[in-house]
Amino acid sequence: MAEYGIHHATFGESTPSIFEIIGQENLFSALRAAFRHGFKVLAENNPGKFGLLFKYFDEGYTVIDSVFQYIHLRLKGGLFPETFYGLKRIPDPRDLSVSKRKIAAWVFFAVVFPYLQSQLELLYKDMREEYSQGSFSYKGFKRRVALLYLKFYPVYNFIYEITVLAYYMTYALKLTRFHSPLMHVTSTTLTHLTAFDLIDDAWKEYVPEHQKQKLTTTLWNGLNVFVGGVTLSISIGAFLTQFINWWYNKEGNTSSFVSLPVPPPPRKWNLEEPIEICPLCKKKRTNDTVLSSSGFVFCYPCIFRFVRENNKCPVTGYKSSSQQLVKLYHQEEY
């Protein structure tokens, strides 16, 4: 349990500081980003095996993390980032009087809700980019709904963010016990772990004597060992990541782990094909857009969809992103 000692010298029933609150919340997004990067590296090196896993990474990670956090709540008294920072939830989820529905609500707000928010933000960015480039593909009723979404999503996002900030401020000033609106909705607070909570088998003390024989003790002990192993692995991994990052960013050290792969040469252009033809749809280009990573020109809708789905140039195979799309304007358009 060395990770607890990093953050606290003493433990007891007390209110955590705003810095501990923000730290444990940031750990959620940091872990997701770290796993995403790992799968991205695997997908780039072996797209056949890991390409599909990376494509549906967010959905898979949300499901696995939901199960893991549910188990962690029942065994450790809090979500993984919370116990990592020496915190636990009140009411204590290890107490069997706490309903499964309440714990499921905690998991939803901690894991599923951020995933839904990220998908809404991604959808907004894609729709806004399509609309600004004049390639809005929605028609009729869907178009009206899409335009309403483009109009009201920024308002919702602003209201939510300002509400979270207001809760942070009032919590820091000790005007409320809840550090976020989601915690307020579920009437949940955080407190520091006690010395008793650090015992591996502390969860057993919350099980009534007449129910202990009904529990599959071996299974829960195995899950407890698994949760402890994950905690230790992340603790060591975080230290090694920081050490490696420091080592390879020292002044004068320009080495890297591996050499970048040499990109394949671009395919020869068919000279018989008219220059105004889009390489993807094979029709005359509309909304001419150049992909700066390769220099080839496409229709904006064609290249935007291709790059978003494949992250490469369709002609050269060079790694590309939608940020490398540059709209071309002709004199007659002014």
Automatic annotation (TrEMBL):
Major subcellular site: membrane
One Gene Ontology cellular component: peroxisomal importomer complex
Annotated GO biological process: protein import into peroxisome matrix; protein monoubiquitination
Protein name: Peroxisome assembly protein 12
Similarity annotation: Belongs to the pex2/pex10/pex12 family.
Transmembrane segments: 145-169, 225-248
Molecular function terms, GO-annotated: ubiquitin-protein transferase activity; zinc ion binding
PANTHER family: PEROXISOME ASSEMBLY PROTEIN 12, PEROXISOME ASSEMBLY PROTEIN 12 PEROXIN-12
Superkingdom field: Eukaryota
